[in-house]
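Risk mitigation, structural track. In case the binding assays with magnesium ion fail to produce interpretable data, a predicted complex structure has been prepared as a fallback.
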Amino acid sequence: MRNTRILEANSVSKVFADSGDLQVLHEVSMHVEQGEFVSIVGKSGCGKSTLLYILSTMDTNYSGDIFLDGQLLKGRTPEELARIRNEKIGFVFQFHYLLNEFSVLENVMLPAIKLGKYPRHQIREMALEKLRMLDVMSEANKNPNQLSGGQKQRVAIARALINSPKIIIADEPTGNLDQVNSEIVFNIFTELSGVFKQSLLVVTHDKEFASRTDRIIEMVDGRVVSQV
Amino acid sequence: MKGGAVTGIAWALMMAKWRQTLVAGLGVMFGITMFVTMLGFMTGLNHLLDGLILNRTPHVRIYHELKATPLQPVQKVLQDQQHFIRSIRPLVSKNKIRNSEALTAYLKKHPNVAGVAPRVSSQVFYSLGTSNLGGTLQGVDVATESAKFHLADYVTEGDITNLINVPNSIIIGKGIADIMLLKIGDPLEIIMPDASSKRLKVVGFFQSGIKDIDKVLSYTDVSNLQSMMDVPSDHFTEIYVNLKDMKQAPVLAGEISKMFDVDAEDIQKANSQFETGTKVRTIISYSVGITLLIVAGFGIYNILNMLIYEKMDTIAILKAMGYSGSDVKRIFSIISVSIGIGGGIAGMLMGFILSNVIDQIPFNTASLPTVKTYPVSYNPGFYAIAFLFSFVTTFFAGYFPSRKASQMDPVSIIRGK
Ligand SMILES: Nc1ncnc2c1ncn2[C@@H]1O[C@H](COP(=O)(O)OP(=O)(O)OP(=O)(O)O)[C@@H](O)[C@H]1O
Ligand SMILES: [Mg+2]
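Fallback model:
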């Protein structure tokens, strides 16, 4: 059973000790199946982002167990977690967060260069391929700040995809985009899920967006109240 | 993007803020330039000041002082017994060094000895027409004196080798030449203490830097003077010894005076204040240089700190993409060390150029006739120290900012947006 679950959280709790022991997550248990497109919805401040940071290994200060690709994340060194993040997780933020010191193409290449699995020229080809898939190949040699918001988000998705991660985790990827661009991004996600069997976990405020995913996890005040 | 992942990123970050990078590099360059130049210049001056003493003073001077023997000869025979012979006075002509042949042979074989130059000297009168001038004539071993000692440096006109090439020749002090209106090539009559006289040809002038000496002293070839004094060829009044390691001079002086029953004076005793002065000047130059480098180091620290604050988002994203804390630390260490190496190399180059400029500035002083421009030392050691220091300071200046960057929590930065 577990080996088809790409991501699984068991009774994950999170307390912010520095804010007077504010408990933000209460025994959260959830999972994402291989190839599944899951969305998380909930009111602002209910702990969605907090959960995503924990699931993506960037926040290690929690209780409970998390399995990524069958591996327990507890007790690993920051180096090991960085490696796991690099290899198995693609993260997409609300703000595209491209690095302006590099060209669009180099931005997409960066995670693969860190992974070090392929020679540089091959990484280049792979990055161009991803950019083509997301219809931004013509922007490859531009600087990120010359791109529109929607284009930037597509480049960010290309970057998240470059290492063929086990799962893409996105925190309000359309939160900063207009209707048209949101639609484009959503279509990309459904295509990734449907055609490439890419597992996806996406936080969104957009009810319409959520309703088109395979499963919706609803959170209220740090608790999961429904998973349908 | 070339090179390894981390180097490529470091390079890109530096290029994105190339103005700041350049300023930081210039800071290091300035520090290193000043360090190398100051140290070179101050050491050059130090050598010059040292030379004022060192070049004139042999490391060990062996002589035989005229004095009453503390142990009267009769006491050597009649120890602890009554005797009536007292106050045996020294023989005036016996200021020659006893057993000089064995002594020079011993010195020449000594492993630490670099050069041995016996000298003979005599009181003379310089006589030209009606004017007579009292003075001292020294017979020197020209070949050794010009190779191992600095006599040739003080010959300002003419050539010291002419003392051997031209028979019966003399090099006179500039003062004597001025007083007696002598030109090179002129004959000069020398009157010896025994009233004999000889005509010598002036082949050069020297300037010792001390006017009173230049008014009395002249040099000729040692065998020439010996024959004028009518003494055998082992008659010497002084032996100059230069050592490979100057520090050993007191030891050798003690050894020689005991073994050969002569007087031997080491350079340290002759110029006791000299070493302290050198040491103090060296300490001053190094402290100034190192202060400059530390100031440059703080400049780098500041700029790296600023760079890291500006690049927080970049660091957070790199971490979210799977770059680890140590990758981030390496990125910033590479930046700081590159600034250090770049600035260091540029600084050494600029320092060399500046040294060259100083080296061209005219500097004339009566006491140093051979020095025409400001002295600068190009000791490669300074360049090595400067480079090492630029590397080390920038490494440490970059260390703490790099560590801070590596420990930065990406979540708090991403949330902060
Ligand atoms: N570093 C922190 N220290 C203390 N409290 C925090 C910290 N970070 C977040 N919180 C609190 O945790 C709760 C959950 O925050 P979180 O960002 O996960 O909410 P969210 O569901 O993502 O909201 P939104 O939809 O607005 O993004 C909030 O009440 C927030 O104030
Ligand atoms: Mg959020």
